[in-house]
């Protein structure tokens, strides 16, 4: 550990006691220990907590996924990888995966693009700038359950606001829950309503770190605002974009509450599982019906792997497509 | 407390969803009851119920009569939120209350896996046998008759709630006696519905949803529902189920139903928008479901007639004592008190839960009860009569799952025309077989 910490003078070495060689040796040793071990102590709380609440459950899930574990009767039979075979063979699992990825794409792509635009607008000189900047995160601090209830009513099939508005302009009511893509759209609206402002704020933070003279010289060279945005702003906040995409991937693939509330709290997510996500299906298998703890654990692991794969793919895609000028 | 009432969505779902979203696993707030024998030999019991058992007053009375026992009542939201937690607590060996509420739709699951519950017969419950109807008692008994895991709380009873104002607009009789006479059988009921529609004067459907027919009709006409007494799935071969399915969907095809998805926001709105004229209603549904949804604006517009096809039951619950309790004796005392006549009547007064206690049903406090909201209908009399000659229906361990998550959604899909009746039926049966194999 030849870090910068090691370069700092040990605190104990500063205490003067030259006359006593034993004391001096001891304080020297203490100082060495301080340098060597205290950094580990400082970061330990995180790793201890992570080990208890993060790592252990994850590993225990692996263990459970190897059993046919009925929570209700508490019977546990070792079945090896059988649970994984069952899950991979299950049409409802793939349906849930399809819904999850579909809703993720439908919600995240517009969400991040709009967030980028909003951040760009807020990055200008304008009146009441702080109020507006704070305002866009307000949706994010509302309770997700409350959002779910309200949007479920807005998109209600019969007495819903959206269908009523459509009706006044002569459009037939949309079956918001029976039509798969309509339901995805509605759920995506909910997700975007909450998260667009949050991402915009993160982008805004990154944009403020871009030196203004870059824009000035670009203007002098005759670059339009639009061109400045794509050629200066976006490349320079690339690390932030990658961050938001990975965070959105993790959050989006774990989507649970919004579609659950949207389907009036029914875990099956639509009569034919039109908007049941993987997280919902895991819950359904684990905590209702047959209480198949092992199967649920296996599915959780597959979801975990899926998130890693998706995060890596997105990372690679973004890195390639948004190339910075600073090579 | 009943099959349906537990499913009132909104708030409880919100709690559940928020909990899961936060990534919290089983919460441990109930762990503070572990063997807490407080100062002066005082015993603290935890009672966990779902929905509204109406025990606030009853618990006060119990504590007054047993000064050494303190009861903490944890209301756990809807059964669908409570049930998964309870299963986890039972499996983990800690966390469950000393007394817990079980609904009849899931009771048999626990009777099958009864080792997590104390045997109430060992605690002295045999003395209570005669205070309950036989079927209510036997439901919580293991097949060998040696272990009892629950004492009965309420029963559903059955009646037909109807909208007087809409009946009047369509030129139908509005008096509850007369209405009862016009709908003595289900074909009568459908015929009157057609008359209602043909009048063209009321801008409402006859019934809220085709699925509303299922519970009452099947409960009246079959001794089994989706499962035979060996817990084998017979939903596909039990003729009454298909018969009701067809009858309900025929009503939908004839334009007699409002096609509202029950327990959805749309359904709630349909009450306020006067979208339908009748609704088969168990006792717990009157004050607990219809009244809050229809709102004060519709007070006095509802009334209650007898259910077509005679009596019947829909819903009802039990109280059980988990094996993990540190105070089985005191827990039994509590369950015994709450399922005694006094406890039953207090719960009826507070939550409209109809007593399953034999004496309770005969008590004037129940018998003479009238409902102001329902035009002064004699609810005690109507519901009391509906369960008098009822035959017990065997539900099976996974009844609730098959009904709530499979059959009802598919029937609704067929009602809305998303699937053909045949396709929806096949899908429901395939899924049910998969889920119960």
TrEMBL record, chain A:
Entry-linked SUPFAM superfamilies: MalF N-terminal region-like (SSF160964), MetI-like (SSF161098)
Biased composition (Low complexity): 7-17
Pfam families the record matches: BPD_transp_1 (PF00528)
Recorded superkingdom: Bacteria
Residues spanning the membrane: 40-63, 101-122, 134-156, 195-215, 236-256, 298-318
Subcellular compartments: Cell membrane
Domain ABC transmembrane type-1: 97-314
UniProt cross-references to Gene3D superfamilies, sorted A to Z: MetI-like
The entry's keywords: Cell membrane, Membrane, Transmembrane, Transmembrane helix, Transport
Membrane protein topology class: Multi-pass membrane protein
Xref: PROSITE patterns: ABC_TM1
InterPro entries from the UniProt entry: ABC_transporter_permease, MetI-like, MetI-like_sf
Segments for region (Disordered): 1-24
PANTHER family named among the record's database cross-references: ABC TRANSPORTER PERMEASE PROTEIN, INNER MEMBRANE ABC TRANSPORTER PERMEASE PROTEIN YCJO
Assigned protein family: Belongs to the binding-protein-dependent transport system permease family.
Protein name: Sugar ABC transporter permease
Species for this entry: Plantactinospora alkalitolerans
From TrEMBL, chain B:
Protein name: Extracellular solute-binding protein
Annotated keywords: Signal
PROSITE patterns in UniProt: PROKAR_LIPOPROTEIN
Pfam name, any one: SBP_bac_1
Organism: Plantactinospora alkalitolerans
InterPro entries in the record: Bact_solute-bd_prot1, SBP
Extent of the signal sequence: 1-26
Keyword Nucleotidyltransferase assigned: no
């Amino acid at each position: 550990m030849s870090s910068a910490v090691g370069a700092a003078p040990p605190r104990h070495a500063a205490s003067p006691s030259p006359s006593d060689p034993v004391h001096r040796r001891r304080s020297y040793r203490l100082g060495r220990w301080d340098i060597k071990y205290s950094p580990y102590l400082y970061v330990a709380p995180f790793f201890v907590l992570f080990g208890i609440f993060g790592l252990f459950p994850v590993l225990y899930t692996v263990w459970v996924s190897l059993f046919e574990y009925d929570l209700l009767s508490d019977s546990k039979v070792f079945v090896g990888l059988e649970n994984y075979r069952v899950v991979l063979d299950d049409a409802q699992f793939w349906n849930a995966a399809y819904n999850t990825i579909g809703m993720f794409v439908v919600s995240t792509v517009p969400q991040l693009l709009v967030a980028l635009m909003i951040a760009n607008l807020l990055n200008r000189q304008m009146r009441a700038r702080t109020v507006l900047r704070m305002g866009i995160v307000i949706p994010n601090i509302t309770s997700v359950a409350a959002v779910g209830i309200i949007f479920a009513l807005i998109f209600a099939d019969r007495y819903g606001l959206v269908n009523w508005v459509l009706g006044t302009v002569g459009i037939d009511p949309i079956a918001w829950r029976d039509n798969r893509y309509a339901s995805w759209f509605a759920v995506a609206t909910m997700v975007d309503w909450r998260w667009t402002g949050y991402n915009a704020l993160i982008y805004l933070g990154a944009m403020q770190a871009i030196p203004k003279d870059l824009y000035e010289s670009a203007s002098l060279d005759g670059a339009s605002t639009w061109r400045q945005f794509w050629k200066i702003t976006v490349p320079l906040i690339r690390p932030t974009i990658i961050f938001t995409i990975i965070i959105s991937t993790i959050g989006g693939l774990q989507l649970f509450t919004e579609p659950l509330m949207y389907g009036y709290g029914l875990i099956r997510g639509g009569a034919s599982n039109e908007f049941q996500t993987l997280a919902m299906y895991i819950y359904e298998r684990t905590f209702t019906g047959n209480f198949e703890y092992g199967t649920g654990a296996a599915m959780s692991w597959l979801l975990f792997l899926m998130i890693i794969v998706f995060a890596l793919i997105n990372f690679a895609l973004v890195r390639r497509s948004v190339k910075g000028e600073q090579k | 407390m009943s099959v349906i009432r537990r499913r009132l969505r909104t708030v409880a779902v919100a709690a559940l969803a928020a909990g899961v979203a936060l990534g919290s696993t089983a919460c441990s707030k109930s762990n503070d009851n572990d063997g807490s024998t407080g100062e002066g030999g005082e015993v603290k019991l935890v009672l966990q119920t779902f929905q509204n058992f109406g025990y606030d007053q009853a618990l006060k009375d119990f504590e007054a009569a047993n000064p050494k026992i303190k009861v903490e009542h944890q209301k756990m939201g809807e059964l669908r939120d409570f049930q998964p937690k309870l299963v986890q607590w039972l499996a983990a060996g800690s966390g469950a209350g000393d007394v817990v509420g079980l609904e009849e739709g899931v009771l048999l699951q626990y009777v099958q896996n009864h080792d997590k519950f104390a045997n109430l017969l060992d605690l002295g419950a045999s003395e209570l046998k005669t205070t309950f109807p036989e079927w209510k008692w036997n439901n919580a008994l293991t097949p060998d008759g040696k272990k009892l895991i629950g004492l009965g709380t309420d029963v559903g009873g059955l009646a037909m709630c109807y909208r007087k104002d809409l009946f009047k607009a369509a030129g139908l009789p509005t008096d509850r006696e007369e209405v009862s006479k016009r709908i003595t059988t289900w074909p009568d009921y459908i015929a009157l519905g057609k008359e209602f529609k043909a009048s063209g004067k009321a801008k409402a459907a006859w019934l809220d949803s085709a699925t509303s027919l299922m519970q009452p009709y099947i409960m009246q006409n079959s001794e089994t529902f989706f499962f035979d007494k060996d817990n084998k799935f017979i939903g596909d071969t039990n003729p009454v189920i298909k018969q009701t399915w067809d009858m309900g969907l025929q009503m939908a095809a004839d334009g007699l139903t409002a096609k509202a998805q029950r327990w959805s926001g749309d359904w709630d709105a349909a009450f306020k928008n006067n979208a339908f004229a009748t609704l088969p209603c168990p006792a717990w549904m009157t004050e607990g479901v219809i009244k809050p949804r229809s709102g004060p604006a519709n007070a006095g517009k509802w009334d209650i007639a007898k259910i077509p096809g005679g009596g019947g039951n829909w819903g009802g619950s039990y109280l059980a004592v988990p094996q993990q309790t540190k105070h089985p004796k005191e827990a039994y005392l509590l369950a015994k008190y709450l399922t005694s006549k006094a406890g039953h009547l207090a719960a009826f007064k507070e939550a409209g839960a109809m007593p399953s206690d034999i004496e309770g049903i005969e008590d004037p406090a129940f018998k003479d009860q009238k409902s102001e909201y329902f035009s002064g209908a004699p609810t005690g009399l109507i519901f009391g009569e509906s369960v008098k000659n009822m035959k017990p229906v065997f539900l099976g361990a996974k009844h609730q799952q098959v009904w709530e998550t499979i059959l009802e959604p598919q029937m609704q899909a067929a009602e809305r025309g998303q699937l053909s009746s045949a396709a929806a039926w096949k899908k429901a049966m395939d899924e049910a077989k998969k889920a119960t194999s």
